[in-house]
Design goal:
By secondary structure, the chain is α+β, with helices and mostly antiparallel strands. The chain folds into 2 domains: 160 residues; 63 residues, P-loop containing nucleotide triphosphate hydrolases (Rossmann fold, 3-Layer(aba) Sandwich). It contains 6 helices and 10 strands, in the order E-E-E-E-H-H-E-E-E-H-H-E-H-H-E-E. The radius of gyration is 25 Å and the shape is elongated. The N terminus is likely disordered. Bound molecules: guanosine-5'-triphosphate and magnesium ion.
């Protein structure tokens, strides 16, 4: 790895940081392994990640894993695989860390302690809680591959793939009204409950509310409701009378 000039700004967006001109929520991804040098950031993105930041992430995540009773009392690598959300106040980042063990006959305890940490700005941390289910699947898959593939360049490819997958996921989440999405909104409810009036209100057609007639069947429209909306939203205003339910 070539060392570049020390960065003054930690999360200066790099070229890879953006897609479609939008900044990605994910700031760094680090694979740390406890090897002969202690906790070491082995593979990380961005490639110009501040060296001390990388070490801090490796030390904190690995030492937490090794201090955990599951690891302390466990035998084998099976029981050790869990997630944690860790604050890194010095870096103004929050990390979602997956702890796991890599079987290694030469290592003490026949396994190497390892972590994969995904980092985002601490102000964005709700992202982890809201998307835990999907993030877990993506990270777990990468960890399993890393357990099997010992080769460092293969591991690099695995980490590159998980980065792409996480980026794609984060982009879709961050931009729920992106052009990629087709959204269909159904307005359902009892008759005379105000569904059609609600839509007229949103369209700022207030004077028509007083004239609104019961909806017969379905009234379908496709239009831009929000400013800067670039997705396709189709609206179905359903009639609430008994015969249309
Ligand atoms: N007081 C009051 N009346 C409302 C309000 N919203 C709608 N209305 C009136 O309630 C009546 C029914 O409203 P609609 O919007 O047509 O109701 P709907 O749910 O579309 O009814 P269906 O199409 O038959 O399912 C209309 O006379 C509206 O003017 C409200 O917020 N307050
Ligand atoms: Mg109606």
């Amino acid at each position: 790895m070539t060392k570049t000039k020390p960065k003054t700004k930690k999360d200066k967006p790099t070229e890879e940081d953006t897609s479609n001109g939008k900044t990605n929520i994910i700031k760094a991804i680090v694979l740390s392994i406890f090897d002969e040098n202690g906790p070491t950031p082995k593979i990380f993105w961005p490639s110009d990640l501040d060296e001390s930041a990388g070490l801090l992430i490796a030390m904190k995540t690995i030492s937490l894993l090794m201090g955990d009773s599951t690891y302390q009392n466990g035998e084998g690598t099976e029981g050790v695989n869990y997630f944690g959300i860790l604050p890194f106040p010095d870096l103004k980042l929050n990390g979602l860390t997956y702890f796991f063990l890599i079987p290694d006959v030469k290592a003490r305890g026949k396994a190497l302690a390892a972590t994969i940490t995904v980092l985002i700005n601490e102000t964005d941390r709700v992202f982890f809680y809201e998307n835990m289910k999907y993030l877990r699947i993506i990270i777990d898959k990468a960890a399993t591959l890393i357990q099997i593939n010992k080769d460092n360049s293969e591991r690099g490819t695995i980490m590159e793939e998980i980065r792409e997958e996480l980026f794609e996921f984060a982009m879709d989440i961050k931009d729920p009204l992106s052009t990629k999405r087709q959204i269909k909104v159904l307005l359902t409810g009892l008759d005379k409950s105000g569904k059609t009036s609600f839509m007229l209100g949103i369209r700022k057609k207030y004077s028509e509310i007083i004239k609104s007639l019961p909806t017969k069947g379905v009234e379908r429209t496709e239009e831009n409701i929000f400013e800067e909306q670039n997705s396709f939203i189709s609206l179905w205003d359903l009639g609430g009378q008994k015969k249309y339910r």
